[in-house]
Amino acid sequence: MATEIRVPTLGESVTEATIGRWFKHAGDAVAADEPLVELETDKVTIEVPAPTAGVLAEILVKDGDTVAPGALLGQIKEGAAPAKSAPTAKADAPAAPAPKADAPKPAAAPAAPPTAPTAAPKGGDMPLAPSVRRLAAESGIDVATVTPTGKDGRLTKGDMLNAIERAAAAPTPVAQASSTIMARAPSAPDDAAREERVRMTKLRQTIARRLKDAQNTAAMLTTFNEVDMTQVMGLRKEYRDLFEKKHGTRLGFMGFFVHACVQALKELPAVNAEIDGTDIIYKNYYHIGVAVGTERGLVVPVVRDADTLSLAAIEKKIADFGHRAREGTLKLEDLQGGTFTITNGGIYGSLMSTPILNAPQSGILGMHKIQERPMAVGSEIKVRPMMYLAVSYDHRIVDGREAVTFLVRVKESLEHPTRLILDL
Fold first, then answer.
1. Which of 279, 395, 416, 423 is catalytic?
2. CA-to-CA distance for 123 and 142, rounded, in angstroms?
């Protein structure tokens, strides 16, 4: 008896995944719930476990293929005995070519079906994914004019995005010239031999697309300020050991920043809002995204309802997110629903930067390296641990007054942390 291996439900708004790698080969014995294949989506990496124990009878998709939810990946033949049947199957395979005279004709017939879907230029012959229908409605592009590249001739979201880009670029000679400039010049033979070409992961492609979309869509502007970290650092130094002993997690700076941002967002709701067509959606909840850098790229897990959490609870969540991000075990729900984002370039040594919006959000706070600098305190010059802060915002919805006020409120809360405790 054979058990099918299928692509699981990938989550909200995720309509396809790429086969990252198979952990097993056809003919290998597998245990129930043992990871079989890694799927890369535009948000996270998912491992598909074996639904039952047995032998991996066949693999129907190869590394790099794009698959949709529910697609058949392979089959498992149940039971331990089939481990010996793999050679038998291969032994039967050479027996088939025995009538070689007849083999070419049947071989040519099965070759036709795979070419049929790829040759079909129409994207409307297969059921359309919701994301494809939405892009078609928004852009006005007829799906029948778009060449599908998905499995079995399916039209993918990427196909529609490429078609939209081509349509936007076609009428404008300047755009064509810029695309020519972007084309990579061939390398000298000596240099080409020392280059390595690596296919971008789905996650990296999505990061690139989303960041560029944010620049193209939002009227993005950045304002700066600086904060004296003396008080926060003093609290952290005084209570660090006691905090860790009681709560089982380190006392970092991010919890203070999350609380400070939540208080500022309550006063300035436009920074916590987003644009939907001609409407503004004001969100009376505070799901704070915290950017985490990994070897695979930047991910932004979300601390949900941060306004209801204690400093210890926030620090525990952030520590857990960081660990799971590096292990590649974050879930889709961990990355969805954020209303505002905090990113910390200071852990890498950045002194100042202009963060890019995490669309469709309207604001993002950039933290940076703490550096001791001489500051005028009253009538004296004192050395203080200072940090530059940057907030990038969508000027379509957030005015300069609101953005500057937001940053000043964050600065005030951090320079006087008792304000956070007293909710002032």
1. 395
2. 9
